[in-house]
């Protein structure tokens, strides 16, 4: 447990930003980037540059079945087109699996994770609704198996109630929201290592943000509550807590969240269509969005 967790886990709202300033853009190469990604990347880049810090690019490709090298190439070309130049070598999560395995081992040794053999369909059928109506909560089917057969395909879930009891009360700092009380219990026994991938997003991102010395995490508002889980994992693994900057999600003029399924144009399409990426980045900095997008709050 960290000193912070032992001291009651409070993070003062005016907690000084960790030094040196290091930000990152961490896309998953499971599709082409769209304008929402550009907003994140510009903000993360500018935050680091304004402080004389470093801006890193991390490719979150642990999901081997959905990640594609051609998406990685497009991401690199898009960032170059936007005029955002990452510092240092590009980091690929697929090359860092032993780090995630180590972290999982430590949680396993502490009795804070358990193997789960449920299929997605079984979980969906037995799930209770999460209080805020988001993801269904895992009903705990495998939580107390006496002699699990680890030769069968399984994921690893965090024993959330136990983990929260061990860590104590926790908080984190968001640039817009100020001090946030972490409530990871509301998300239930989330998966930390999947049947088909050696680490979940939550575990990999927490380990990597610490290993890369990230001081400032810039990402969309959709990941706001995920930070509660990352904060808990930081406390359990003795890792530092960055500052967080969750920005509003870009929506179309109809208020619909931007996603490829809504027909949002990709950065690649704009780039190959002859658009000026640096001018687009400058527009985003000034809060100007192309026609058809609602202004960012
Ligand atoms: N890889 C995640 C995504 O593309 C973002 C991770 C993060 O910024 O924490 O949605």
UniProtKB/TrEMBL annotation:
<keyword id="KW-0479">Metal-binding</keyword>
<dbReference type="InterPro" id="IPR000924">
    <property type="entry name" value="Glu/Gln-tRNA-synth"/>
</dbReference>
<keyword id="KW-0030">Aminoacyl-tRNA synthetase</keyword>
<keyword id="KW-0067">ATP-binding</keyword>
<dbReference type="GO" id="GO:0005829">
    <property type="term" value="C:cytosol"/>
</dbReference>
<dbReference type="InterPro" id="IPR020058">
    <property type="entry name" value="Glu/Gln-tRNA-synth_Ib_cat-dom"/>
</dbReference>
<dbReference type="GO" id="GO:0004818">
    <property type="term" value="F:glutamate-tRNA ligase activity"/>
</dbReference>
<keyword id="KW-0436">Ligase</keyword>
<keyword id="KW-0547">Nucleotide-binding</keyword>
<dbReference type="Pfam" id="PF00749">
    <property type="entry name" value="tRNA-synt_1c"/>
</dbReference>
<dbReference type="InterPro" id="IPR001412">
    <property type="entry name" value="aa-tRNA-synth_I_CS"/>
</dbReference>
<dbReference type="GO" id="GO:0006424">
    <property type="term" value="P:glutamyl-tRNA aminoacylation"/>
</dbReference>
<dbReference type="InterPro" id="IPR049940">
    <property type="entry name" value="GluQ/Sye"/>
</dbReference>
<dbReference type="GO" id="GO:0005524">
    <property type="term" value="F:ATP binding"/>
</dbReference>
<feature type="domain" description="Glutamyl/glutaminyl-tRNA synthetase class Ib catalytic">
    <location>
        <begin position="21"/>
        <end position="267"/>
    </location>
</feature>
<protein>
    <submittedName>
        <fullName>Glutamyl-Q tRNA(Asp) synthetase</fullName>
    </submittedName>
</protein>
<comment type="similarity">
    <text>Belongs to the class-I aminoacyl-tRNA synthetase family.</text>
</comment>
<dbReference type="InterPro" id="IPR014729">
    <property type="entry name" value="Rossmann-like_a/b/a_fold"/>
</dbReference>
<feature type="region of interest" description="Disordered">
    <location>
        <begin position="1"/>
        <end position="20"/>
    </location>
</feature>
<keyword id="KW-0862">Zinc</keyword>
<keyword id="KW-0648">Protein biosynthesis</keyword>
